[in-house]
Structure prediction request, 110 residues.
Amino acid sequence: MKILLNWLISSLVILAIAYILPGVHVASFITAAVAALVLGVLNAVIKPILVILTLPITILTLGLFTLVINAVLVVLTSLVVPGFTVTNFLWALVFGLILSVVNGVLHEMR
Prediction:
């Protein structure tokens, strides 16, 4: 039940961020739900591999390179999910940053 609630909240957050940011477009709530699911799977499977592969640069940048990894995952999600588009890498970086902060705050509140 908790996983479904997290998925629903992430979908709503993706819709809200797409409404605020001009460089991110989501066609519908179903698209946002699929994007949240794909982003969650990418974060669970590909992100740990990318973090390990980029560990030296992550250490040199004091962890800020993980923001770039998040942006890459957002861009990959936009390539996989039809109806979810991010116009460029900068909007993906901003989207990933806002999504991480909002999800972190919402998960702390529960």
In short: The beta strands are 24-26, 84-86. The first helix runs from residue 2 to 20. The helical segments are 2-20, 29-53, 55-60, 65-80, 89-109. The chain has a mean pLDDT of 94.
